[in-house]
Amino acid sequence: MLSALLLVCPVAGADAADEPAVAALQVALVREGVYEGPVNGVAGPSTRAAVLRLQARDGLQADGIVGPRTRRALGPFARHRLGARLLRLGACGWDVAEVQFELAWAGYPSGLFDGCFGPHVAAAVRRFQRARGLRVDDVVGPGTLAAVREPVVVPPVRLAWPVDAPLGDRFGPRGDSFHAGIDLLAPAGTPVRAAAAGRVAWSGGRDGWGLLVTIAHGGGIRTLYAHLETVGVRLGELVAAGAIVGRVGATGDATGPHLHFEVRFRGAAVDPLRLLGTSARLEVSAG
Fold first, then answer.
1. CA–CA separation, 202 vs 190, rounded Å?
2. What is the model's pLDDT at position 7?
3. Handedness of CA 17, 23, 29, 33 (dihedral sign)
4. Which CATH architecture has domain 1-79?
5. Angle between helices 20-31 and 45-57 (to 10 degrees)
6. CATH numeric code, 83-151
7. N or C: more exposed end of the chain, with fewer CB within 10 A?
């Protein structure tokens, strides 16, 4: 049995402390129909309110503490402690939700945070195991679990902003999934520039991404520029830092014009804001 979760709102440092156990709780609450907020691992007021609703619904003491009785109210989904069993294709539960959340922050998102080990989770596990030099077996055991908890490695490079525009959605949980890049809110047609010199590894359409340009910069670093209106480079072309690679659009799964910008290091998504220099636009939009 997992130790009880005490949800105190606000949690000190909650905006930066996304907890896998809280994310798993949020998934469980969604399954029970008492929570409609984001799966972000932050024990905020909406999560606490959902716990109180669950407790009141099931005739439990409404104290916001996720102890043994409250966990039983969450059903079989909340039964398994992370690490108590091997996780493989077909498994569902609280422990799977924790792994999904930890994999996403390690740079390997697997679709929706739903607590079920489906094909997308298996693919993310394989990519992670391959990148970390582990046995590639689609199974999350002690070795994989220990590796996914290691600090994320960020390449020691500095990238230029591809568009001078306000910051929209950041890297991290968004709704019931994970946003693996940042969105820059620029008008359609705005020039998009290469964040560093490199060779074009992709130029064209891809499902969901719309028109996409990917640039390989060497050393395992790639940058991705998605939802473009037009592309201005060819596959294999060498581009200089600051060269125009396309123009902002709303192609693919985009609700309006913006640039979705990602950074990958050895296959793992990393937060672009950790590699980009400071921006007056960022400071204004983040205030």
1. 20
2. 54
3. positive
4. Orthogonal Bundle (1.10)
5. 50
6. 1.10.101.10
7. C
Percentage of residues in the chain having pLDDT higher than 90: 88
Residues 261 and 162: beta-carbon distance below 8 Å: yes
Radius of gyration from C-alpha coordinates of the chain: 21
Q: Which pair of tokens denotes residue 134?
A: 């582990």
Q: How far is CA 59 from the centre of its chain?
A: 36
Is the Cβ–Cβ distance between 231 and 188 less than 8 Å? no
Q: How confident is the model at residue 277 (pLDDT cuts 50, 70, 90)?
A: confident
Longest dimension (CA), the chain: 65
* Mean pLDDT across 154-173: 95
For the four alpha carbons of 17, 153, 266 and 181, in that order, the dihedral sign comes to positive
How does pLDDT run across 179-223, given as a tens digit for each residue?
999 999 999 999 999 999 999 999 999 999 999 999 999 999 999
Q: Before 173, cis peptide (omega within 30)?
A: no
Q: In this structure, what token pair is assigned to residue 140?
A: 């999350």
Is-contact 240 197, C-beta < 8 A? yes
Q: Which residues of 76-96 are buried (b: 16+ CB within 10 A; e: fewer)?
A: ebbbbebeeeebbeebbbbbb
The architecture in CATH of the region 172-286 reads Distorted Sandwich (2.70)
